[in-house]
């Protein structure tokens, strides 16, 4: 473990890099598991009244 400010900065960098790598992979996995006709729809779960 790194003490002091150096440890905090290294830890923050590791967390940031991990988040930057995992987020796009998670969205890619979600997109690949979603049926093609349901992609790009509404962000909420409600359906329009006319459907």
Describe this structure in words.
The chain is mainly α and 51 residues long. The chain is 59% helix and 0% strand. The protein has 1 helix and no strands. The chain has one helix at 4-33. The model has no long low-confidence stretch (mean pLDDT 84).
Secondary structure elements and their pairing?
Elements lengths: L3 H30 L18
Radius of gyration: 19 Å
- Spans of at least 5 consecutive residues whose pLDDT stays below 50 are none
Task: Specify the helix fraction band.
Answer: 55-70%
- Globally, the shape reads elongated
**Series of H and E elements:** H
Q: How many E strands? A: 0
Helical stretch tally: 1
- Percent strand equals under 5%
Distance between the termini: 57 Å
Class by alpha and beta content? mainly alpha
Q: What average pLDDT do the residues reach? A: 84
* Largest sheet composition: none
């Amino acid at each position: 473990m790194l003490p002091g400010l150096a440890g905090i900065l290294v830890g923050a960098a590791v967390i940031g890099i991990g988040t930057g790598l995992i987020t796009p992979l998670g969205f890619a996995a979600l997109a690949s598991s979603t049926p093609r006709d349901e992609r790009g729809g509404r962000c909420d779960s409600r359906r329009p009244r006319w459907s």
